[in-house]
Amino acid sequence: MRRMGMLVIVVLVAAAACAAQETPTEKEAAGDVVTQIHQLDQSLGVEPMVKKLTAPDAQREKVEARVKQLWQSELQAMSDWITLHPEIGFTEHNAVAKLTDYLKAHDFEVTVGVAGLPTAFVAKYRKGTPGPNLGIIVEYDALRGTRGAFHGDQHSAQGPVGLAAAVAVSEFLTETHTPGTVTVYGTPGEEMMPPEAKTVMWDAGVFKGADIIVRSHSMPNTARPAPGFGTCCMNIDGVHYTFYGAPAHELTAWNGRNALEAVIKLFNNIDAIRSNLRPETRIQGVITEGGAAPNVVPDKASADFYIRYPDSVYLAQVTEWVNSAARAAALATGTKVVIDHYGHDRDGISIASLAELDFAYMKMFGATGIIPQPAKPQGYDETGSVSSQIPGVGVEAKSSNFSNHTYGMLADATTDVGHHGFLIDAETEAAILYDFATHPELRSAVHTEFTRIQTLFGEYQKALEKAYPQPQVTGPAAKP
Ligand SMILES: [Zn+2]
Description:
This protein is an alpha/beta fold. The protein has helices at about 5-15, 25-30, 35-45, 45-55, 60-85, 95-105, 155-175, 195-205, 260-275, 310-335, 350-365, 405-410, 415-440, 440-465; strands at about 110, 120-125, 135-140, 180-185, 210-215, 230, 235-245, 280-290, 300-310, 335-345, 350, 390-395.
């Protein structure tokens, strides 16, 4: 995950950042969208509904007890095993084998290798009946570190956490003849781009039919997002620029065309426009290919960029400008450029009816490091591909004393602080899915809130289109 550390989250909370909008232009364009979102929560009666749902309930407590039993008997050990056997994105074969073997043994029909991704899987409950389709996303990829792969983001626990909830809830559905089914989505390579596994899986229709999706994630504190739309780390365009030239001897370079010079020019061109870009813009690139030897003019060179802005509307303008900078670099150096837009992250949607329920359960189950104020709105998946289309919530009880992507968080995955947080994640996922299956009023509130925020997001995007006019650049007419 490309996530902020605790400090940043605390600062955001202190700034009462329940708003999705980060810049003055965005705030103005949003108009009363934020007010409408909060009025929506009032009209839906989120607070009283959460109180009612989290009251003592013998059936739910039975499901929670089963989660605990599954976790303690086998799944905590599986989580530790995956932590100690890290595999980076799209190579998570051992983790997938562990998770899918377990699911098969618990009445799930498993398909590994969906959407053309060998380590993506879908597991459908065999005894499910027509009714709410309860979805759980699990991830399992490790981080790429200088000392090798490591689970410094604790994705190693997500699978076992999700499995505990999936099995406990599916057994409940069958035992009580409650209509509904459970689907587990194994999503690889969360830390990699490209491909963005969830976007690829979404495009392939893998998530079709899910009525709700939950996903857990490690955190150094226990928090939940405010309702609205947003993403943890800005909207992102991933763009790869490859320049093609012609080789020649260093001493007779005029016989060639230097692709590396084109890449260097691209970086310089971008620096030349930074002062005309809105200050929240972030553009960072690396040179991924720069030639083979100094005595041969490089005929191929490439650079990889993440271009970020808080909203996707202005981001589109920035990306087009960077593309122009690349074309200009090619023109100036006599090379050719191929522009590959290989990935993008966009805003997701968070809803109070699930986020507040999630928060109440995490506290009830004993989560520590509670941050009382909601954080800024964001979807439960970083790509926004799924969380802007299917309602759901990211369950994130404190599971480490260290921030994300650290060796400290890795160490905590196999100790009490991690184990405690993971069990709470599993219990909370199960409780939310149980409520969704058994309480039509929750389903109705989720549907109403989600579709309304989707509409408001559309209105906000339209307002932004008008908020970023391009200046008219005039000059004397060209001479014939
Ligand atoms: Zn992550």
